[in-house]
Every structure is written in C-alpha cells, then in structure tokens.
C-alpha cells in the first residue's frame, strides 16, 4: 500500500503538500530497539507548534502541537510497534541538557498492525526484563532538527498510524467526514494501568479495621475511607520493596510518561532540568488494566442497542487488573472506547441518543483482579475503581494517560 492510491485508501500520507506560516520548532528522535531479537530503528523528525499543514488528499491541520506525536512500523509478524514522541519541543530542552542519556520513551506493541486498536505499553524497565517481553530497549537520543529535515522525513516515511485511525479515536463519524477523513477502527490511544505499593506498617491497623468482615483478597475502600488521608500522605514503597518515598516522589501523574518519557525505577529516564535530575521522580510497579469496553470488541452498530447487549453478556468486563502474581509488572494496556456508528454531533445529539449513552454507562459489568471480584466495587460501567486494597498489605492506584497529546497529529 505504498502507492498514492493505497495511501488514499488507508489515510496514510507519506508527505505534506505545504506548510504555511511556519513558526514551529523541530527535533529528531532516534530510538533503537529489538523486537523478538530483530533490530528495529526509529529515526523520526517531529514538528512542534506549526501553523498549517495541507495534505495531498485535500485535508489540512492547523495549530498542530506535535507531529507525528506517535509513529509506527509494521513488524514481521503483523504486529504494530508504535513510539510516542516525548515532548522536546522547546529548543532549550536540547541545548541546556534536559534530555537525559537514559531517556526511555513509551513504546507500544499493538496486536494487529492493520487496526492498532489494542496494544501493550512498556512502562518501565520491569517490562523489558519481563518473561513476557517482546522488546529489548537499546537507547534513545534527541537532536535539534530543521523544517527541511521534517519535510524530507515526511516525503520518505509512511506512518503506520493513519490520520483516519488517529482521529477516529477522538471524534464521531460525522465530524470526521466534515474534516475530510473516513471513519475506521480507532487507534488505541489511551493507556491504563495500576501502580501497586505496600501499605505502610504505620497505617495497616487502620486499613485492617476497614477490611470487610468476609476478608476478601481485593476490595474497594470507597472514595473516603477513614484511612484515606493517612494513606495518601504516608511515604510508600514499591510492592517489591525498596526505598520509601512520598507520593510526590513517584512518577504516576496523567500525561507525564507520554510527554516526558518513562521514569526508571532508580530515577531518571525523563526529560527535565539537569540540576534537579538527582531528585527526579521514580517509577513504581505498574500492572495493566483490561476492559471489554474497547474498540477491538464488536458492538452493535446502534448505541441504543448497547445496554441490551451488555445485559445479554453477564461476563462483560468493565475493569480487570491483569496481575498474574506479578508477572505483568511494567506494562499497561492501550485501547480506546468504542464509538457508535450512529454518533451525531452538535444539536443532533438528541435526548434519545443521550439516554441510550446513559443506559449503557449504567449497565452492570465485572470489576476484577485476574479472575477475582473486587469486593464493594460499583457494578456500573461508568464507575471506575480508583483504588484497590489487597487484603491489608498492598494497594493499587489507577494510572491513565493518553498518547494523543495536546493538538497532536500524525
């Protein structure tokens, strides 16, 4: 599909028609990995804050934050390997040494290179050391680049992540068509995991008092348990041990893994001022979260039938921590929610459609760790379990982030 007709069919364009009013900055990202022992190299030129790009299909993008914010290649077994470009848009990051030698960008292996709907993100060194690992990380570098280098990169390279895929994860069919794009299976652009820590000995008695009388292994303490403040403020350590650190010491906030790189277990790995790198935040133990509410699952075409479908599917998983006694440490799962084929926009989002969405979100689903139910968890699809307690020994905190970035494009 490297012909122009093929790129038109897939929405993958290897180069732009023109860039207007260019006030952007540019950097080159070079990453070396091995996929199932086969070497793979990325040499990507990223544009930041460019004003307008016109594509040969007639579509255009304005005020792009980063492009390509994600870039993918097809592997020999038809899986897709996608890298999220970290945000090195400010030239000072490169000139003043903000990019560390041990930079660790987010990489995601997608199950199917043709759809890219479901993938496994490598969120820490634990992932690369895992017996489940398909990747070996061999290093990443960032350099300043120019507009000419960006244009040459676009001419010579085709992104596995098409614009149709990328934006189908963000908007409904009508809005896509209004922008000259064709709806397709959406790119798996949101990544989900839990960070697991040991409960500090100083508050275990408080946790034990709140533990339900039937002593479930996994339980939801609710939004405001009596021990919430103490647990929130206490220094904590990874589930496998190591130093105690305050919650500010752990790199688990929203977009940071995607924007700045993945924090290594001993600190480092992320873009940041060199003068504070010695007190950089550390990576916790991540475990991936799966949901049947993802676009790779076949759903009825009309949203008004979705709640009925869920009622007929009693084993529908709303949220499942894939723990497996720790073998999945270091990973996250990336996918997007299904988009109704009949999704209207603007005033067309009528009461009937909104009621159908509401009924779907209130549908009963399962909340699990592996095959065990999370005691006390709300049964509704819309209610995510923010924190899971394991007996009186460990707790899981939810970690979500997006790959698309602010104003991102491909």
Protein described:
The protein has 11 helices and 19 strands. With 410 residues, it is of the alpha+beta class. The chain has 2 domains: 25-109 and 122-160, no CATH class; 190-402, no CATH class. Strands 5, 6, 7, 8, 10, 11, 12, 13, 14, 15, 16, 17, 18 and 19 form a 14-stranded mixed sheet that branches. Strands 1, 2, 3, 4 and 9 form a 5-stranded antiparallel sheet that branches. The protein starts with a helix and ends in an 8-residue tail after the last strand. The model is unreliable at 1-15 (pLDDT under 50).
How many domains is the backbone divided into?
A: 2
N-to-C SSE series? HEEEEEEHEEHEHHHEHEHEHEHEEHEEEE
Low-pLDDT runs of 5+ residues are: 1-15
Provide the helix percentage. Answer: 10-25%
Which structural class do the helices and strands define? alpha+beta
Distance between the termini: 18 Å
Number of helices: 11
List keywords for this structure.
410 residues; alpha+beta; 14-stranded mixed beta sheet; five-stranded antiparallel beta sheet; 11 helices; 29% strand; disordered N terminus
Would you spell out the secondary-structure blueprint of this structure?
Blueprint: H1 4-10, E1 16-20, E2 25-35, E3 38-55, E4 60-67, E5 70-74, E6 80-84, H2 91-95, E7 107-110, E8 119-122, H3 125-129, E9 135-144, H4 147-156, H5 163-168, H6 173-178, E10 190-198, H7 204-210, E11 218-219, H8 228-233, E12 237-238, H9 256-260, E13 285-290, H10 306-311, E14 317-321, E15 331-335, H11 351-361, E16 366-369, E17 372-373, E18 387-390, E19 394-402
Parallel strand pairs: 14-16
Antiparallel strand pairs: 1-3, 2-3, 2-9, 3-4, 5-6, 6-7, 7-8, 8-15, 10-12, 10-13, 10-15, 10-19, 11-18, 13-14, 16-17, 18-19
